[in-house]
Amino acid sequence: MERLEKVRIQLDGVNTLRSIKRLLGLTYKELSSSLGLPESVLSRYYTGDMLPSVETANEIVERLFAEYPLDKILSKVIRVYETYVDLTATYNPDLWTLYSIYISRKFEGLRVDKVLTAAVDGIPLAVAVAQRFGVPLVIAKQYKEPGTKSLEVSYIKGNRVVSLYVPQGQLAKGDSVLIIDDVVRTGKTIRALADLAAAAGGEVAAAAALLAFRGFSERFEFPLDVALFI
């Protein structure tokens, strides 16, 4: 294992510890009980005074995700109403960090050349995931960029037509694309994003959404991970 990869795993352990502690307001005593590590050691990991070994870091990530699954965390930090989802929590960098680690492990070994999302609410999460994979982020917008040729796809959303545009050249033939969405209500946005990737000659390797309403209608030929069904 290369040194850089070892450091990344060590930082994953620290960042998972820090993010979950802050998001849930956990004490070192509670974390010590979950991880079987002394509170003093966890405190030094948290502050960055000491890094865990690769083995310990992997164990921290695995145990914390087992004890505090992402869906349980989301249930505590995101407010869901009958027709409205308050996504304020998705602007918390701790959630970005945690989600990017979660996705990197969920799709470990997946070839990703581009991360694709639709403006605007999914952008912070997509930025975190793109940075994690070290690949460009492509944002499909509901307007054309001035003076550029764009790929375009349209779909029906409620009682209106929605069009998404991506400037030509941002998606390319042969690209393996990972779609990131914030909330899936019908699945039509993910379908439209997949159509944009196909129009450029690329292929969707997988898609992921933070939340999804149960019973959404679209079905996909690629894997879709949903962190929390509501």
Task: List its traits.
single chain; 230 residues; alpha/beta; 434 Repressor (Amino-terminal Domain); Rossmann fold; 2 domains; five-stranded parallel β-sheet; 8 helices; 9 strands
Q: What does this protein look like?
A:
- The protein is α/β, with parallel strands linked by helices.
- It folds into two domains: 3-68, Orthogonal Bundle (434 Repressor (Amino-terminal Domain)); 85-229, Rossmann fold.
- Helix content is 43%, strand content 23%.
- It contains eight helices and nine strands.
- The chain has helices at residues 3-24, 28-35, 39-47, 54-67, 70-77, 93-106, 123-133, 188-199; strands spanning 79-80, 85-86, 114-118, 137-140, 150-157, 160-167, 176-184, 203-212, 224-229.
- Strands 4-3-7-8-9 form a five-stranded parallel sheet, with helices on both faces. It has a two-stranded antiparallel sheet with strand order 1-2. Strands 5-6 form a two-stranded antiparallel sheet.
- Helix 1 packs parallel to helix 4, helix 1 crosses helix 6 (93-106) and helix 6 packs across helix 7 (123-133).
- It is globular and about 55 Å long.
- The mean pLDDT is 96.
